[in-house]
């Protein structure tokens, strides 16, 4: 019986100490501190912001069929939006290259810099429409890692180049 008394006393004390108002407030305080530190400590997924910029709206100004469209700041090739595809999708019958050229373009709507990948669409002869050569931050061919005059279809199943898409991959920070 003494054992049971002690057991129930201890459990009741434990429940009382862990459910007190002070304990609740201290836990809430800890959570708040951790919550404010989280964005600084953890890598943040900014895909939502990037996807918001994907939707054609006031947040994505300009004409995707024009070389002047903000996402094409570092493009070199035929725009898929003029070739039966769109700014983000390849024309039917072509496949997207997995190896690609990456640029950083400023969206005039929100002033943010976005990481854009310029994937080539492969498997059909050159589209020939809307040829664009903007090349922000591009460097000469003797620095191949910083040059975008490259047929990325050479890394795909079908090596024939058709056109280029411009896909937002994220928001550039720092
Ligand atoms: N990345 C566009 C491209 C394709 C073929 C040749 C030059 C540039």
TrEMBL record:
**Subunit structure comment from the entry:** Heterotetramer of two light and two heavy chains.
For the keyword Electron transport, the answer is: yes
Chief localisation class: periplasm
Organism equals: Alcanivorax xiamenensis
Describe the family membership recorded for this protein in Swiss-Prot or TrEMBL: Belongs to the aromatic amine dehydrogenase light chain family.
User: Is Disulfide bond tagged as a keyword?
Assistant: yes
SUPFAM superfamilies noted in UniProt:
Methylamine dehydrogenase, L chain
Q: What is this protein called?
A: Amine dehydrogenase
Q: Where in the cell is it found?
A: Periplasm
């Amino acid at each position: 019986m003494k054992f049971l008394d002690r057991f129930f006393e201890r459990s009741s004390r434990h429940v009382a100490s862990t459910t007190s108002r002070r304990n609740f407030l201290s836990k809430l305080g800890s959570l708040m501190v951790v919550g404010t530190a989280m964005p600084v400590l953890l890598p943040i997924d900014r895909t939502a912001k990037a996807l918001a910029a994907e939707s054609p709206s006031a947040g994505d100004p300009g004409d995707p069929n024009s070389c002047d469209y903000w996402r094409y700041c570092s493009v070199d090739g035929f725009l898929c939006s003029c070739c039966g595809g769109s700014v983000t999708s390849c024309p039917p019958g072509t496949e997207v290259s997995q190896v690609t050229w990456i640029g950083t373009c400023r969206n005039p709507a929100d002033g943010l810099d976005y990481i854009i990948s310029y994937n080539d669409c492969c498997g059909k002869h050159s589209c020939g429409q809307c040829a664009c050569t903007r090349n922000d931050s591009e460097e000469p061919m003797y620095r191949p890692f910083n040059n975008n005059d490259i047929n990325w279809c050479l890394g795909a199943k079908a090596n024939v180049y058709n056109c280029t898409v411009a896909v937002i991959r994220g928001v550039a920070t720092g």
